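Support request from a user on the community tier.

User writes: "When I paste my structure tokens into the form, the page sometimes reloads and wipes my input. The last time it worked, I copied everything first. Here is what I submitted, just in case something in the input itself triggers the reload:"
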């Protein structure tokens, strides 16, 4: 495998990464530097089998630079793909599905498989030394690459076996070099001219790429826009004509990219877990401040959302007993009080201005957990409770239809409810 990797790297150094993008979707990356990234979509140029066509997609793409790379295998000038992922969108030291691909194998027959990605460590004067830095998976329809060694330089090549006309061979897809950045490496580079304290390479073209960050987004409810359509049959249990009270709310949340279902059902009466509530809050916060609301999920799908929520003050590490019970606590059902707490922290007070006079709530007082957030959402017209007396029932578990209603009102001020309690 090492010889194959070296051969592919040498080949791609000659070919470069000169692929032509046929589509890209611009998004605003949220972070200290407010760097503008795109989702790059382009045809793969590394694969050597003409019968196989591969389209690659790279979220959080910042640009390409030239660099003279010296490793244990070779030395030469090459294109380097630069990806910027803000600190709050990492899952620990991992960035999952950083490069994904769609495969059309034609007359060829690809053998599914997986392997390791190389992480190149720039250590003083020893140049770039190879380490195991991540993994890839390839099957007949797709490929995924995940980077597990933090920010730095990687080789993003997925090798695979295939047969064509009765003959077996190997090929690869991806990029010979990917430079993965976060807020810490960007700020360190802009201060000291290198990516960390033990690095020796100065990345001369990187300065141009980082020179003019986008103005920081101030945040706005106007950032919530429909990103997909809802059709009859998207969810078998949610009707497009809105015959149930919650249908409209679920459809709105789906169109905005805030809530998902399970295959062809939404399960409106099922419980809404803490993980799902935190996920919705993370998406809301990210979109409000100009982000895409999209996150790269890892094996424990909710970890990246929990990290984002903790990094942005939506929750703390000790909330819900997670500091003693562990992350499994996020898999239990959320109460209505916990949901109010999480969602009230997803937006600033300026987006939750009071429109109602609420002097009391029958079953909520100063001793009730999360009473501050509950009262805030009542006054903002996002919560109205049960019955004409507006009971909140803070200890009851919240179901998915109720969550959809709250989220829909949270992001659309025009749908908020006007009432008073004296």
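"...and here is what came back when it finally went through:"
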């Amino acid at each position: 495998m090492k010889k194959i990797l070296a051969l592919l790297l040498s080949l791609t150094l000659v070919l470069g990464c000169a692929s032509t993008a046929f589509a890209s979707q611009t998004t605003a990356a949220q972070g200290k530097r407010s760097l503008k990234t795109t989702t790059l979509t382009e045809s793969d140029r590394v694969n050597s089998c003409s019968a196989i066509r591969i389209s690659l997609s790279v979220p959080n793409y910042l640009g390409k630079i030239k660099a003279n790379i010296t490793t244990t295998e070779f030395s030469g000038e090459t294109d380097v793909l630069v990806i910027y992922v803000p600190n709050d969108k990492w899952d620990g030291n991992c960035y999952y599905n950083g490069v994904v691909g769609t495969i059309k194998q034609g007359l060829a027959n690809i053998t599914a498989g997986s392997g390791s990605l190389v992480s190149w460590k720039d250590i003083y004067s020893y140049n770039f030394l190879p380490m195991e830095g991540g993994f890839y998976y390839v099957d007949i329809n797709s490929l995924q690459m995940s980077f597990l060694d933090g920010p730095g330089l990687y080789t993003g090549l997925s090798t695979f076996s295939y047969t064509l006309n009765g003959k077996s061979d190997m090929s690869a897809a991806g990029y010979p070099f990917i430079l993965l950045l976060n807020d810490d490496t960007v700020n360190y580079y802009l201060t000291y001219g290198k990516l960390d304290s033990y690095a020796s390479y100065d990345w001369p073209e990187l300065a141009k790429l980082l020179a003019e960050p986008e103005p920081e987004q101030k945040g706005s409810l106007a950032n919530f826009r429909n990103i997909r359509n809802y059709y009859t049959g998207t969810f078998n249990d949610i009707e497009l004509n809105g015959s149930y009270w919650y249908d409209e709310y679920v459809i709105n949340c789906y169109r905005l990219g805030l809530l998902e279902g399970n295959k062809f059902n939404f399960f409106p009466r099922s419980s809404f877990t803490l993980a799902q509530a935190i996920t919705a809050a993370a998406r809301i916060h990210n979109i409000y401040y100009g982000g895409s609301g999209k996150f790269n999920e890892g094996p424990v799908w909710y970890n990246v959302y929990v990290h984002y929520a903790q990094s942005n003050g939506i929750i703390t590490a000790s909330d819900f007993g997670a500091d003693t019970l562990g992350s499994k606590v996020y898999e239990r059902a959320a109460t209505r009080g916990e949901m109010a707490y999480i969602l009230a922290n997803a937006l600033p007070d300026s987006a939750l201005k009071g429109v109602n006079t609420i002097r009391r709530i029958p079953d909520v007082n100063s001793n009730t957990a999360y009473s501050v957030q509950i009262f805030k959402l009542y006054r903002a017209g996002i919560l109205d409770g049960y019955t004409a007396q507006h009971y909140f029932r803070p200890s009851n578990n919240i179901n998915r239809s109720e969550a959809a209603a709250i989220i829909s009102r949270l992001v659309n001020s025009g749908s908020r409810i006007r009432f008073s309690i004296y």
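Agent notes: The reload is a front-end session timeout and is unrelated to the input. Residues 221-415 form one domain. The chain is about 25% helix and 25% strand. Escalated to web team.
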